[in-house]
Design brief:
Elements lengths: L1 H11 L2 H32 L13 H14 L6 H11 L23 H5 L7 H26 L6 H12 L2 H9 L3 H16 L3 H10 L4 H16 L2 H25 L3 H15 L4 H6 L1 H21 L8 H17 L15 H7 L2 H6 L3 H29 L11 H23 L1 H4 L6
């Protein structure tokens, strides 16, 4: 027995695997350095005219303050007065229309039922809340990796699983989400838990978790629609998903109306304004509005057909997984502000990246077009770490301190992050005809 354990341990720490692990750690360090020691100083210099030096610059703060003002002081979180208080905490001072035309006004633009999620934190100072949130999200984001593996029926050996953890926790979207203290971190975890529960047959729990994730509806609407379409395909055995989802949504909407009557009109106005001062979705940025509308509609139809065709298959099957990956990629293509720095939303592509290196490798062997699209997607994904390391080495070793991220050299990692969903979408489309023939091992 001892000899067998020693042999197994020697396989786990073989020189080849040790070299791969060391390389992964170096690339991860390069990405952390690139974000925190190259990009953040550039952003601080660019925002020097806005920041008074006392702002917290936390995306969690507008939601937290809005929740406190509503639940404690019965003030409308969408009101201009509360927006000015949010700006005072976020930027260090209220913005002036004549002076500050560029910055995001940081208005409360979430569905009002997000206050129920934040309610337990309102009695504590915000600094304590943000520290707790970051620590909790670090644990839950790490936990979401085995949840996605269970949901997709993916089995990885320990070395491969460790590499997956390193890659995901050091990815640009993850670092970006933690730096900005984004609620997308929580939404991504809730979606992963929902899909894992669905794969385990806990349909009501899956519906409840997905409904809670709708605090950012732009990230969940297509997933929810796909799951409900799949549920209708076998209503008798799957109705508890719809009951869990519908019941939780009803509770959230009724609760929101009770704490702020007429909230939907305020939220709709805030959402319209949000779309006005943020950049358009990735698809619109690349194709223009008319073409993006047509391609987006085709994408919605494509995903709907895939979920309907997967109605005879369980979660974790090749058919269901392909439909889910397709809808997550579509979400990333259509979510607003994709070109405005909201790269943290690519946390939703975490399962798609796992799928790319598992089932995706099988699909890439089926035909030349799929193989080429797979190679492009993998190169663009891995290139984010490689280019970040190169920029970091130039800053750290050669002392080339950069003043702007607008150059191709400094902005290369961000450009690859920006374009990766397109490459992934092209691979999904190229593999669509073969995807349903393969089951995830």
């Amino acid at each position: 027995m001892n000899r067998e354990l020693l042999q197994r341990g020697s396989r786990l720490v073989s020189p080849r695997r040790a070299l791969i692990l060391a390389t992964a750690l170096v690339l991860a360090a390069g990405m952390f350095y690139y974000y925190h020691r190259v990009l953040i100083p550039i952003w601080r210099q660019e925002s020097a005219t806005i920041d008074s030096g006392t702002g917290n610059w936390s995306d969690l703060y507008p939601r937290w303050l809005g929740a406190r003002e509503l639940l404690w002081h019965h003030r409308n979180p969408y009101s201009p007065d509360v927006t000015r208080e949010i700006q005072r905490g976020f930027y260090g001072r209220p913005l002036e229309q004549t002076r500050d035309r560029g910055p995001d006004p940081e208005a409360f633009a979430y569905p009002v039922y997000v206050v129920f999620v934040l309610a337990p934190s309102l009695r504590f100072p915000f600094d304590a809340v943000r520290n707790f949130y970051n620590a909790l999200m670090l644990l839950l984001t790490a936990a979401s990796i085995p949840l996605w593996m269970r949901a997709f029926r993916i089995s990885l050996e320990l070395p491969a699983a460790v590499l997956a953890w390193i890659a995901i926790l050091s990815s640009y979207p993850t670092i970006d989400g933690f730096h900005l203290e984004q609620l997308t971190l929580l939404v991504a975890v809730l979606i992963s838990a929902s899909v894992a529960a669905l794969a385990e047959g806990r349909l009501a729990l899956s519906g409840i978790l997905l409904a809670l994730a709708t605090i950012k509806p732009q990230l969940t609407i297509f997933v929810a629609a796909g799951f409900l379409l799949w549920t209708i395909g076998d209503w008798g055995s799957r109705k508890w998903f719809a009951i869990g989802f519908g019941g939780t949504m009803a509770a959230q909407l009724i609760g929101a109306e009770l704490v702020l009557p007429g909230w939907f009109g305020f939220w709709r106005k805030a959402t319209t304004e949000y779309l006005g001062y943020h950049r358009p979705p990735l698809l619109t940025s690349l194709l223009g509005q008319p073409a993006a509308t047509l391609v987006g509609a085709a994408g919605v139809l494509f995903c709907g057909i895939k979920f309907w065709r997967s109605r005879g298959y369980p979660p974790g099957s090749g058919q269901f997984n392909f439909a889910l990956v397709s809808v997550l990629v579509l979400t990333e293509l259509l979510v607003p502000n994709a070109g405005g720095g909201a790269y943290y939303n690519q946390l939703l592509l975490l399962p798609a990246a796992l799928w790319l290196f598992t089932t995706g490798t099988k699909l890439a062997k089926e035909k030349a077009v799929a193989r080429l699209a797979w190679i492009i997607a993998v190169v663009m994904l891995a290139g984010q770490w490689v280019t970040a390391l190169i920029v970091s080495c130039n800053d750290l070793i050669l002392h080339h301190h950069f003043q702007s991220d607008a150059s191709l050299f400094v902005g290369a990692p961000e450009l690859l992050v920006y374009e990766f969903p397109v490459a992934l979408a092209l691979f999904v489309m190229s593999a669509a005809t073969r995807a349903t023939r393969l089951e995830t091992s």
